[in-house]
Structure prediction request, 499 residues.
Amino acid sequence: MKNGKKTEGRRNPSTTRRSGRERKKISSQGPKEVSARNGASDARAAIVLAAGQGKRMKSALAKVLHPLAGVPMLFYVLDLVKQTEIQRTFVIVGHCAEQVSEAVSTWGVNCLLQDPPLGTGHAVLQAKDALAGFSGSVLILSGDTPLLRPETVRRLWEVHREERATMSLLTTRLTNPYGYGRVVRKKNGTIARIVEERDATPAERSIQEVNTGVYIIEAPFLFEALGEVQPNNQQKEYYLTDLIGIAARRGERLAGAEADPEEVIGVNSRADLATAEGHLRKRIAARWMAEGVTIIDPSQVRIDASVEIGRDVVIHPGVALEGKTRIGDACLLRACRIENSRLGEHVVVKDYSVIEDAEIESDAAIGPFAHLRSGTLLRRGAKVGNFVEIKKSELGEGSKANHLSYLGDAVIGKGVNIGAGTITCNYDGEKKHKTVIEDDVFIGSDTQLVAPVRVGAGALIAAGSTITQDVPPEALAISRTKQENKEGWVRKRRKKREG
Ligand code: UD1
Ligand code: CA
Prediction:
């Protein structure tokens, strides 16, 4: 189906519209480009602009690396490029270049340095040498427009091809177009140019049709016409948007497609970041509901883009799921925060619990008010209750720590009962030591286990004990001062006071 459509597209292909000079260029391309043209689609490259300073963010972090739903905003743009059949991708880096290059190092893209950043037109020019001899189409995207959907970009490709355009741009209509470049049209309705907010006349500012910063441009025109762009504007920058005026003046074919305003939000400030975050969160929640997850109030949950959730999971208000978290089928999550953790099936997490870098097997129950820290492993059916903190410890199958405990660097077997107020004293001020509690042990309330220490299978520790030595299997360990009852002591004291 997909291929059929593309083959059809190649019948009205760009080759027929190219001049002899351009065709010659195609045949002089290297083998890579030729094979790309012979493939399912025309040769396509993408340039992602990510060199700007992002002044309005007032941040030490590069603007395009600010996270949205837990993932740097630039990654959404790179993911979109990945989904739109593009052979080569260039990311233009400048401000915080090292930071940005490092962040995108696993994406299989080429970073090109723009130093100093002199505007969006100048940014694209940085790819001129890398794309020398390339005569296909170039998709240009901004790293700060993360909500764009692949379908919309595909639609723009279709329009570009159908209209045999030299340049196509994605526009939208905004009730408040402040800050965006306005699309100025001629009387006959064709696009004349783009004017930026700062350079616009009051009449132009009232135009609600805006430039989204997404373009498809034929490479030969792109790099040749960029040579004509001058920094004659308020910001003294080389504007990519000037290409529209140049194309219109030269009578080149200009095409356009309109996008949903929500998709093309450009993130320039922290307020824009929050707006984009809101939209993205809604999208993520909608996606999981469509997959069979109950979300009682989607406006009150935060689910990162990187999270996976099974069917019949029920998510109550106040839940935050972050990082590489995976929730198995039929878990019940009340208000809690879960980060980089895996939950099996039918796990119940009650209110105000925090789970970080932990693994929880099926049928476990957690909270309310539990804190499971890095390296926690709860085996099947284990139960952790109020005010229990666990770090780097395993709690065996069906074992329970229901109240007020600290378990650190401990390996706890099956069927163990950890009484209220149990503390593993794992730190001697210099080193951490291990506590081992074998299967079916009963630890009485208010016990301190001074590590390193081992409690043998089936042993019983009397409440209030301080355990400093290993306990043999099935032994009773008790370490506390003997109780003494002084008969009538209170009565005698009262009499003495009353005189
Ligand atoms: C730009 C468009 C505007 C459009 C808006 C849509 C221009 C001149 N204006 O404005 O018409 O409505 O996007 O969101 O293009 N960048 C570089 N190098 C630079 C300057 C910017 O790589 O020298 C990058 C930025 O990192 C950013 C993108 O280009 O990812 C857009 O730059 P930005 O300054 O945000 O442009 P806008 O003012 O939003
Ligand atoms: Ca922008």
About this structure: Residues 8-264 form a domain with the Spore Coat Polysaccharide Biosynthesis Protein SpsA; Chain A fold (CATH 3.90.550.10). The longest strand covers residues 209-218. The mean pLDDT is 92.
